């Protein structure tokens, strides 16, 4: 779109870098076997909750900067990354306000279910949750984890931001559920389609920037002459 109007363009070649599972819906001409391979990349739902607190004295008293809690809603709770940028300087004194980083990966019941099925159950669960649900969970967990250090959610929390992605991190190969042919599935999913090549970190079945860069370079190399 340009100037509020839709435009159509034509190109000799194209690199398609997007959520790979939707490619068959954009390009119905994708071969059936490749559609099946692309459908195997079921993304994990993901929630990053940010909590602004008035200070981080309780963390100092407890002698921790990060908490791993596999059986809790939030499997990871930590003092936010100490980033200084431009005129902004991250908090250096425990009496200063700071952000907390809290990670929640909603999944379904695990007994007998593979990772893809759990992600689908988790996505449905996530879509049914409201902000009030997250707030109650956050306040409860922080009180129980940090209360011994003097923390009080009612007194110390200044703001909460919920960042949720129904389709978050790309699926990664899992030896518990995936066979030895997994690499061939990845190769089949990202195979060129005529004059179109496929990029995005999804095409590596990884969720990180370095994978997106590597896959972009690979997709450009695969463009036909």
Provide an overview of this structure:
This protein has 225 residues and is of the alpha+beta class. Helices cover 32% and strands 19% of the residues. The protein is built from eight helices and seven strands. Strands 3-4-5-2-6 form a five-stranded antiparallel sheet. Strands 1-7 form a two-stranded parallel ribbon. Helix 2 packs across helix 7 (182-189). The longest helix is centred in the middle third of the chain and has 16 residues, at 131-146. The radius of gyration is 22 Å and the shape is elongated. The two termini are 29 Å apart. The model has no long low-confidence stretch (mean pLDDT 93).
The proportion of residues in beta strands is 15-25%
Shape: elongated
**Helix amount, in percent?**
25-40%
The gyration radius over C-alpha positions equals 22 Å
Low-confidence segments: none
In sequence order, what are the helices and strands, one letter per element?
EHHEHEEEHHHEHEH
Strand order in the sheet with the most strands: 3-4-5-2-6
Broad structural category: alpha+beta
Average residue-wise pLDDT:
93
Largest sheet: 5 strands, antiparallel
Separation, N- and C-terminal Cα atoms: 29 Å
Write down how many β-strands occur, each being a DSSP E stretch of 2 or more residues.
Answer: 7
DSSP summary: helix tally? 8
């Amino acid at each position: 779109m340009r100037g509020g109007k839709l435009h159509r363009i034509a190109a000799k070649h194209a690199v398609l870098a997007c959520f790979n599972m939707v490619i068959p819906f954009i390009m119905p001409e994708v071969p059936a076997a490749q559609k099946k391979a692309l459908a195997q990349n079921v993304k994990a739902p993901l929630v990053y909750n940010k909590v602004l607190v008035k200070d981080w004295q309780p963390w100092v008293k407890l002698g921790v900067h990060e908490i791993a809690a596999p059986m809790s809603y939030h499997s990871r709770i930590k003092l936010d990354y100490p980033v200084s940028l431009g005129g902004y300087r991250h908090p250096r004194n425990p009496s200063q306000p700071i952000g907390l980083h809290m990670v929640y990966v909603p999944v379904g019941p695990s007994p007998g279910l593979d990772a893809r099925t759990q992600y689908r159950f988790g996505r449905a669960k996530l879509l049914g949750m409201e902000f009030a649900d997250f707030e109650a969970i956050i306040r409860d967990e922080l009180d129980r984890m940090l209360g011994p250090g003097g923390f009080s959610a009612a007194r110390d929390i200044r703001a909460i931001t919920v960042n949720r992605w129904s389709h978050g991190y790309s699926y990664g190969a899992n030896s518990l559920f995936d066979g030895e042919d997994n690499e061939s599935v990845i190769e089949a999913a990202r195979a060129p389609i005529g004059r179109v090549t496929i990029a995005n970190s999804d095409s590596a079945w990884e969720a990180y920037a370095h994978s997106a860069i590597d896959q972009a370079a690979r997709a450009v190399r695969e463009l036909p002459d």
